[in-house]
């Protein structure tokens, strides 16, 4: 058995009406930010295992630990979601030992399995523990709710960090965020505290979150905290898990088999401490006896079995071994019944079976010491004949803090009729919970039915039309009262018209009505899920259409970001002190144009705040190649065959407007609309003339792109429109002329920084002539002119840019490549020079005369070794010359 080197966690999630996700997963100790190990997850809905994939049931982002469900699985308030997974937990060096031994005999087989997983407490990986912290962890025993330790450090003032000053207030020593070099000497790490802390989140700056102290209250001589955070860090304890299992499988006779297993578990959740050791070890036993013989009914077998399981109070399994909904089957989920006690489970079953058909009756009992006593009877039918019948019914009675009566069934009946399949499925549950002779408000009843008509599976087509309803009742005033009613029609189509024509279409519509608003927190809501995939090739492939259209609903996560200083040249952003106050404000970071400016990276971290959104995705790609279908050799056809075009439209938008017309419309484009949370739109059309001709060719491209991102401190929206035409002409074998004309607009709307808002109109022309006498050498002369005007601000910033340059490339086969360039740039600028607008319009250069140059030498030293030398420089009349160099060595294996 392969064991992933991760930590196991199980999340039980109640579905949210009309929310396909994402649903955030947490670790076994409620860790909020985890990395899931790829492929370790198992996702269940109502006890059924799902399949991962956009064409199936769900998708998962392993980095953000988020699960999103596809249109094949409509999520409602009634869906029970269970996700089991392993996640990265490398807080300590960990050793894993596993051994499986199997001994085979004539009539009996024996096995011995050993599993041991232990953290090396003296080899922490992701945390450094001081002697004081180790001593503290040794004193808390197994109470991990106390595994917090004050986290503040006195450091020198640094403008690249969130720092605090220490003051006294109301008799408390508190920390206040500060940017003053005379007092900001403390770096703090905050954690969310169970039971509350004395700090709240109070915004952001360029380098992270800012926390503010709030005074606690004293109520009845008890200190009441009014915040959620404290300046402490969570200390992760080293743990140990061990399991030893021995078992046997015996053939008592030809018809009777016996299985028996005994297991010993040993789990210590804090190996630093010698306290609380009495609850580390536990025992478990499992017994199964089965007998099979012929029955009185011809061709039917009678199978009887007895199963028993016993685990002691502190037995801990490595992973779940019982049924996925075991606690729900016995009505102990979300109850006050303590499961930390000796547990006994017994089952007796009689089954009448013929091939895959069977009738079965099962009686069960489950006991948790003196805390719980339950008895359950199951009746199961599975018949596959002219009419297929699948039935699973059960009745449970239990006694504990509350006495329960739980009656339920799940049945499916289907029949094939001349190429179609008619099906009916219904689920009923009646769960009465009695406390002190009164019906508990947690009691409920529902009836859910669905009928469908579908064509039989074939190579070409499958069409299914379905309709279902659900009725819910909840406990109130010692009786069950109607709360909600839902209807759910839909259609699924998978049709292959021909090898060149495929259609996949799924539509589900759910209408939720509220019968009694006093008994439910839900509101009347209609949910539409729709997905269409359509692919078609016409005219011998000369005309192709690929369409994807999806609408649904889910949650959008607000993202937080901060800037981190890195080695010069290794970053993406540069800081410009626009207000000359020496403080790095969040609106003073720009995308670096030159490598010597790239000193910062922007790091996004997921927050805990989600917004419900309604989503629309639409992709359309159309390609036209006349040469595939215009075969006649006429003059007109020859001209048309030189043309080709490709059009691609992609939209992905999420809005908070619950309006079907708004949700279904993929072309709504008001990027500043406050209801529009995220947007990723692009439209590109390219028309080619003589695309593959080596002498002459023209390309026209029209591009629109829009992007809007939801951030914790406001949205960031960008848009760009570009209309360009490129012409190339190989005058001779050695001379190539390229001419480009371009009209462009750039728009920026940033909610958290108004100084970053602009609408720039750009006109650009470019000419380039290249001389290339051979494949070794190429020399190019380039001239560019740009006219830029800010049409948003009243200042009306303008920039006129003349750029003249020369480029050289020399290539020696299997030896190396030399490239060099020099540019003379004359910038004429009207407007405030120290601003975001100026940085954008002047492309990080200065007004007036600028010179830029670069040189790169790439040398192959051996078959698998490559050396690269880079040098760049720039100079302007208002600044010193800046030189930047770098060296890189690559080894290929």
Compact overview of the structure:
This protein is mostly beta strands and 893 residues long. Helices cover 3% and strands 62% of the residues.
Keywords:
globular; single chain; 5 helices; 893 residues; mainly beta; 62% strand
* Strand portion: over 45%
Q: Helix content range of the residues, please?
A: under 10%
> What's the overall average pLDDT, rounded?
88
Low-confidence stretches: none
Overview of this structure, please?
- This protein has 893 residues and is mostly beta strands.
- It has a 32-stranded antiparallel beta sheet that branches. The chain has a 4-stranded antiparallel beta sheet with strand order 1-7-3-4, with no helix packed on it.
- A hairpin with a 3-residue loop joins strand 49 and strand 50 (816-830).
- The longest helix has 9 residues, at 131-139.
- It starts with 6 loop residues before the first strand and ends with a strand.
Question: Which helices and strands, and how do they pair?
Answer:
Layout: E1 7-14, E2 23-24, E3 42-45, E4 48-49, E5 58-61, E6 66-69, E7 80-87, E8 92-104, E9 108-124, H1 131-139, E10 148-150, E11 152-154, E12 164-169, E13 172-177, E14 186-188, E15 191-197, E16 199-205, E17 208-213, E18 217-219, E19 222-224, E20 227-230, E21 232-234, E22 240-251, E23 256-268, E24 281-294, E25 301-311, H2 326-329, E26 343-354, E27 357-368, E28 372-383, E29 387-399, E30 403-417, E31 420-435, E32 438-439, E33 444-455, E34 461-476, E35 479-498, E36 501-514, E37 525-538, E38 543-565, E39 573-575, E40 589-591, E41 600-624, H3 635-640, E42 643-655, H4 660-664, E43 676-689, E44 696-711, E45 714-730, E46 735-750, E47 758-771, E48 777-790, E49 798-812, E50 816-830, H5 836-841, E51 848-862, E52 865-876, E53 879-891
